[in-house]
Amino acid sequence: MKIGVLALQGAVAEHMRMIEMLGEEAVAIKKVEQLDDIEGIIIPGGESTTIGKLIKKYGFDSALIEFSNKKKPIFGTCAGLIILAKEINGTKDIHLGLMDVKVERNAFGRQRESFETDLEIKGVAEDFRAVFIRAPYIMEVKNDVEVLSVFDDKIVAARQGHLLGVAFHPELTLDPRLHHYFLDMIKEYRR
Ligand code: GLN
What we know:
Strand order of the largest sheet: 2-1-3-4-12-11-10
Number of domains: 1
CATH class: Alpha Beta
Helix content: 25-40%
Number of strands: 12
Low-confidence stretches: none
CATH superfamily: Class I glutamine amidotransferase (GATase) domain
CATH topology: Rossmann fold
Bound molecules: glutamine
């Protein structure tokens, strides 16, 4: 399978390494035309305002919405989750607006700008080492969004059909279980 990583800004190489570790082909996506060749895409962590601007500039906004309409899976991590969200607390500037979640940016405060913790993630792991870096969290979920993980009473992982969003960076550890889960989602939607 060919899996894309949106390569406009952020932790691109690390996600590609994880996909390759799982024996699949990783493609750095820089042009919308490349979306036709891949089965699923990861939107990495980074800075959501920057990624959001570049998405518009290069026409990825409508292209990724179309990609999603075809039920091709999308996995947003950290800033990528913010890009997927239908609502961002305190602003009307949403990006793709695909997933029925409301997120709060930089939500863990100053003392916890960046930290690591072990998470239980439904269907994935009981002890997933998660790295949070100026992370958002999910304040509210709607419709058929399934909550996969909660930390400190905050939702930090969720799935809605072919969409997966997590508040942390699963590509910075060498634990491939969450990427494996995403590959299983792709296989499920291929049928
Ligand atoms: N704080 C960033 C934002 O709001 C997200 C940080 C990250 O992706 N590690 O976009």
